[in-house]
Amino acid sequence: xxxxxxxxxxxxxxxxxxxxxxxxxxxxxxxxxxxxxxxxxxxxxxxxxxxxxxxxxxxxxxxxxxxxxxxxxxxxxxxxxxxxxxxxxxxx
Length: 92
Known about the structure:
By secondary structure, the protein is mostly helical. The protein is built from 2 helices and 2 strands, in the order H-H-E-E.
């Protein structure tokens, strides 16, 4: 992984080394700092998206549980008993 990263960063570091008064170490340090800031920004955006998805999931689960409670309250009233060959609603 380090070899691939060094291969990809080399042209940019070389350009910064030649065109600015920065040393090689300074050029590489600035590139790594920029890459770190980009990575942290992407993680922040991804984390905010993840938080939104979790909040949405919690809302959906609450809604489902609320609907289940209503169904369970109504369920005993809708049970039909087989009474002498005919189906009639249970009297409460």
